[in-house]
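Hi there, hope your week has been kind to you so far. No rush at all, and the record is pasted right below.
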Amino acid sequence: MSFYSSRLPINKSYTDITAEINRGILELRKSAPDAMAGFNAMARGALKPGALSEVNKELIALAIGVAGHCDGCIGFHAKSLVRLGAKREEVMEALAVAVYMGGGPSLMYAAEAVHAFDEFAAPVSDGVASSS
């Protein structure tokens, strides 16, 4: 079994990953409200449209999540990109830059980011996103 196959499940669900992380974040908000309020203010300020659009900023965040090997980052930013109407082609170009900057390990996570974007972009039926 390779390093990557032992760490990355084949059927990873970014819907499940982000939901689980959100449960932990809720606990952090209760236990460390000032720190979490500061983080949320920083996120709002960083993602506020300016010289760069919110989509461009989310593409940057997704690429950094890939380079940082952060499943939660990939999930949350892929979901935001779908919500903002990003084109799949834009996501693919941002992921190519992430791979260029991060090498082979980033390629593995870029492939995961493709799955995350497609998962969140899938049509929803009966409140459940399709897994294909």
User: Anything to note?
Assistant: DSSP finds six helices and two strands in the chain.
